[in-house]
Amino acid sequence: MSILGTRVQRVEDPLFLTRGAVYTDDLVDERLAGALHLTLVRSPVAHARITSIDVSAAREAPGVVAVVTGAEIGLEPVVLQGGAPKETARPFLATDKVRFVGEPVVAVLTEELYQGQDAADLVEIDYDPLPAVVDPEEALKGEVLLFEDLGTNVVGGFGLDKEFDEHLFDDCEVVVTQKLVNQRVAAAPLETRAAAAVWGDDGRVTLWASTQNAQSARDAVAGWLGVERDVVHLITPDVGGGFGAKIGADPEFALVAQLARITGRAVRWSETRSENMTGMLQGRAQIQTITIGGNRNGDVLAYRLDVLADAGAYPRLGMFLPYFTRQMAPGVYDIPKVESRARTVVTTTTSIGAYRGAGRPEATAAIERAMDLFAAEIGMDPAEVRKRNVIAPDKFPFTTKGGATYDSGEYAKAIDKALEAADYAGLRAEQARRRERGDTVALGIGVSAYVEITGGGAFAENASIEVHPDGTVTVLTGTSPHGQGHATAWAMLASEHLGVPVEKITVKHGDTDLIPRGAGTMGSRSLQTGGVAVYQAAGELVELAKQRAAEVLEASVEDLEVAEGAVNVRGTTTSITLAALAEKEPLKVQTKFDSGAPTFPFGAHVAVVEVDLETGRAVVDRIVTVDDAGPVLNPLLADGQRHGGIAQGIAQALLEEVRYDDEGNPITATFADYAFPSAAELPSFTLVDMATPTPLNPLGVKGIGEAGTIGATPAVQSAVIDALSHLGIRHIDMPLAPLRVWEAIQAAKGDA
Amino acid sequence: MIPVGFEYVRATSVDEAISLLVEHGEEATLLAGGHSLLPVMKLRLAAPEVLIDIGRLSELSYIRVEGDEIAIGAGTKHRALEASELLAKECPLLPAAAHTVGDPQVRHRGTIGGSLAHGDPASDLPAAVLALGGTIVLRSPRGQRTVPITGFYTGVFSTVRDPDEVIVEVRVPRTGGAGWAYEKFVRRANDWAIVAVAVVDGRIGLANMGPTPLRASAAEAALADGASIEEAAALADQATDPVSDVPATAEYRRHLARVLTKRALTTAAGAAG
Ligand SMILES: Cc1cc2nc3c(=O)[nH]c(=O)nc-3n(C[C@H](O)[C@H](O)[C@H](O)COP(=O)(O)OP(=O)(O)OC[C@H]3O[C@@H](n4cnc5c(N)ncnc54)[C@H](O)[C@@H]3O)c2cc1C
């Protein structure tokens, strides 16, 4: 019986659940014995000129070994994102100007960690304040410039070469337009950022860092340090969550390595939660203007998406993400005319990077809002409008007007399954009853349909597999698990071919000397690239083993099969174990799988919310999701990914928002203020199965990591608005927290 | 997240804690459950030079009936209030309010004395004790005094407590069968109140509607004069001064106070008997 598709329990859990996992800050390594501790003095102001830095008192503080300023760090400012203007280079430690609260200015190194903050408090920095610019629309005006030499705050854009078509909506009976805010959110992983570095006598630096991809982090850090990439040995210990914000390297990693070089000692750094809430990349942060047009019969004919993306102070990956947003603009719909553009501006805020979905949830949120607004305008059921406009299943592969080629999909079926599981008709009847009775608790039903890109960044991945003479197996992967369960999943894939139990298979990742090539874990890419590579490697190993066994067993390769860790001659008892073969000669293969293109998982969510009309508080009562990512390797792991994603999706819709005041001060930088959810804010999830394989890899699998987030957010937003539709409310921006919902209700009452 | 250095002394009795307070003067601060003090120290918003730990004094941890009142030791944990059968019977508002504080970890560390002394207008127990018309017993080298909670708070995070005084006890009336309710409005289950309303025996305490916990006196008076619940609740935000912050504007808080008061009064009316 195949192990694929079964609920194998996570082999990594006993360690994680008993606190046995070793995160970067927990590392005990003799090379780090006596390491110095780095404390960063970060800017308390959003935008200012630095007029003086006095570190003399700090240098005298107990335990201080070095206090280093930007003038002394010996690293040139760097452009952190390819394609960003050269004027946006970020210094590793600010010298003449700061551009967001949390920007590092001075590095303090102490013998003991606790001495660091005391010394940091003695650093005196004079700031000559400049006006902050927090709102991207303000930034667009260019009245306050972050980079004077650039002469503008616009740092990038897509689709700006031609004007919008003024006749786009000419054929439409109905046209609706709406401005939307897809708000800024914090990744807030349980493990904050951390790094440790030590230089060896061989002139190489060993750098431990909490990242989602060791190999690209190594390349970035080497580049920033100005050394060959072989000089950097990057190791990722256990990583406690990333959600996209730990893709690649942060400048602090290079800072740690450079400070170790300057002092000739090991240096370690682990940021505090407060630092994390301003220093770590944040997500989303788009202002969108949508326009949708069509006929009263429900046909959507044209759609326009205009994106203004906030890059934060120094452009990072967030600058690129509107590319995905544009690509996925039409979502699951076959819309004859689609146009979009995106502009990215810098603001005096924390930089924007990837966050679970990264560019695609923003596209889905926009088109799904557009569908609802269109449905409301023509007075048609929103689920009906969706089904009427989706791409038909016989049209795949389908190239959309967004420019993406979707591999496979059955969108109407996904919507129907979700509606059926939720008892949509029953819910609508209940909603009508409540309205008739004048209940103070209104029922709202939200439907979303989505398609997304997984494996969108890097299509190829490496894997190697070796059977050892003791019968154990080692798998090396270029993916970089930080919660996903690759140790279990990759072992299952190897076990499928080798017949070796998963307990005997060890999966290793994230050590660049051991695994020099790999693209890490992001964009839900791992299974469809790295997992398939492991599966392929195990298959190749079987062939190699058969060839070797053929000689030993004096049998022909065609008569051999591999089962339960041994090569057997079919129909006989003659066999040799893989372990015995490995004893004679290393039994190992290295391979690479290249899918050549991304895949496009899809699904539909139905959210049911109750809204207290007196207080504005919305509670998700149920959420039913169809998340089709092809055949499921391990339902336990896939369900876990869906659960986490749905939770984060609901949280963006109802709770989470990173906010700044007008001076650019973060006002949600603690966990008391930043409202990420707990289990108590969430319902139980109803997960409906559906599996449409992709032709792009032999397992037919697509990515599942971000699906929940992408589908849940618009479904929940839509449900809350739906609950209030009888009051004439058509749109409320996220998060639909009680205050905002109450204000919308008040405004609607005022209008009535 | 590392506090400024401090000295730590563990008091073995209330008397010793008082003499340590006298010895160290303004530089000293009492440490009970630490769940309000330590967070502000870690953010370096407070930097006491000496911490006098009273967290393990069993003499401060009790709940007992004394005549018409219930006496509660200042060191009694929220969890003990929540789980007390005595309180469930004699003063059910208090365990209900304690049950809404933070999460189980917080409730197993935080104390009623710490909560009252800290004076955060958003906290739950001060509003509940205010609605109960409780009193606070303070001990110092000058002896013991009892202050009604109505006169205890002077502003945000400030009280009439002298620096050398220890809260030793909180006294609340036995409310028996009087109607009561605790309505707390939060974004997330473990959050501080955006607004909370405590109702017992026709008295109404408000959390987070001003710099200190407040009584909704106008609403109480209206009720006493025979107004309906709706009419009385409409006055619940009178003489309040709520702040505007991320989760709520002042106007929204006023509205919530009225709605929650209406709900609490309705529940209390149903619970009386
Ligand atoms: C995550 C989290 C969530 C929370 N949520 C809530 C909530 O929802 N509602 C709520 O009401 N509270 C909440 N709290 C606060 C919690 O209830 C605290 O425990 C309480 O406010 C303080 O009690 P403590 O014993 O921990 O006091 P400590 O932190 O030890 O002390 C607080 C202050 O009181 C003084 N003090 C303590 N005991 C005495 C005494 N006997 N005499 C004189 N002065 C004294 C101290 O010197 C200090 O100034 C939360 C706390 C946390 C960490």
TrEMBL record, chain A:
GO molecular function: iron ion binding; oxidoreductase activity
All copies of domain Aldehyde oxidase/xanthine dehydrogenase a/b hammerhead, residue ranges: 19-131
SMART domains for the chain: Ald_Xan_dh_C
A UniProt-annotated Pfam family: MoCoBD_1
Gene3D superfamilies linked: Aldehyde oxidase/xanthine dehydrogenase, a/b hammerhead, Aldehyde oxidase/xanthine dehydrogenase, molybdopterin binding domain
Record keywords: Molybdenum, Oxidoreductase
PANTHER family membership: ALDEHYDE OXIDASE 1-RELATED, XANTHINE DEHYDROGENASE
Protein name: Carbon-monoxide dehydrogenase large subunit
TrEMBL record, chain B:
InterPro entries, alphabetized: CO_DH_flav_C, CO_DH_flav_C_dom_sf, Diverse_Substr_Oxidored, FAD-bd_PCMH, FAD-bd_PCMH-like_sf, FAD-bd_PCMH_sub1, FAD-bd_PCMH_sub2, Mopterin_DH_FAD-bd
GO molecular function: FAD binding; oxidoreductase activity
The keyword Oxidoreductase appears for this protein: yes
SMART domains, sorted: CO_deh_flav_C
FAD-binding PCMH-type domain segment(s): 1-177
Residue ranges crossing the lipid bilayer per the database entry: none
Pfam families (UniProt xref): CO_deh_flav_C, FAD_binding_5
Gene3D superfamilies per record: 3.30.465.10, CO dehydrogenase flavoprotein, C-terminal domain (3.30.390.50), Uridine Diphospho-n-acetylenolpyruvylglucosamine Reductase, domain 2 (3.30.43.10)
Coiled-coil intervals, chain numbering: none
Keyword terms, alphabetized: FAD, Flavoprotein, Oxidoreductase
The keyword Cytoplasm is annotated on this UniProt entry: no
Protein name: Carbon-monoxide dehydrogenase medium subunit
Species assigned in the record: Pseudonocardia thermophila
